[in-house]
Amino acid sequence: MKRYFFLMVMLLLIPSGVCAQDLGEVIVVGPSWNKFTNHDGTGLYHEILGRIFTERGVAMRRIYVSSQRGNDLVASGKADMMTCSDSASAPLFLARYPMYEGEFHCFYNILRQPEWHGPQTMSGKSVVFRLTYYSAKNFPEGTVLKEVRTAEAALGMVLLGHADYYIDDLEFIKDSMKQGTIPFNAGDYAIQVAGRRQYFPVFRESERGRQLEAMYAQGMEKLHASGELQAIFKKWGFPYPHYTFPE
Question: Which residues form the signal peptide (predicted)?
């Protein structure tokens, strides 16, 4: 009880502090992902940030750019937050709590790769994915990494035999299969779970960045304690992350 009383007091104090310091508009950047950051302002990420910032009087503006461009904008101080990533390099840092946790998948030709024994199967093989979406830490040691600009290009690399596995979120793989222009026999291909990871908002190491991250973290704790965060995930059909909130 003492913990939640203290938390509520802090949450009440933070918005006035933001106004006093005249932080102004908070700029959030990143790609448009279906059910996460829809262009109409709906989606998991939009709703969580809206509850934490907008509903507490903090103005927010969304700019849709690639993940790499988003990181560059935050690093240069031209944006405040990028949603979302599983890693960050200085001067960027990850928020303490993720906004999503889920599996990622691989698409591959079962005629070329007939055996699947879990993610370790990819060791020594080549994987292709969209630029900046994954890194070596997401794969077994020895995996050969290839990056391309679009999901359709990644799919094409596997279809044309230039890579062994196309890595992406399951829904993105399905979308790329629908949008792709290279004909293929679906029966020759399979999709398997390639791993699991958490996705965090990205901030810039600065006084402003640390203050915004603190607002985000405290807001997440409040939403979790009230049950609202669980309801948001259920609304959008996503599993609830394995959070480690303070008791």
Answer: 1-20
Token pair of 70 as six digits: 């988003």
Determine how β-strand 92-94 pairs with β-strand 126-130: unpaired
pLDDT of residue 13: 43
Extents of the domains making up the chain:
2-100+198-236, 102-197
Query: Which pLDDT tens digit goes with each residue over 160-173?
Result: 999 999 999 998 99
Contact 80, 208 (CB under 8 A): yes
Residue 117 structure tokens: 């024994």
pTM over 0.85? The answer is no
Q: What is the pLDDT of residues 106-163, one digit of tens each?
A: 999 999 999 999 999 999 999 999 988 899 999 999 999 999 999 999 999 999 999 9
CATH architecture of 2-100+198-236: 3-Layer(aba) Sandwich (3.40)
pLDDT digits (tens, 9 = 90+) for 186-200: 999 999 999 999 999
CA atoms of 237 and 159, how far apart (whole Å): 31
Question: Is residue 100 a contact partner of residue 44, using CB atoms and an 8 Å limit?
Answer: yes
Determine the CATH number of domain 102-197: 3.40.190.10
Give the separation between CA 68 and CA 53, rounded to whole angstroms.
24
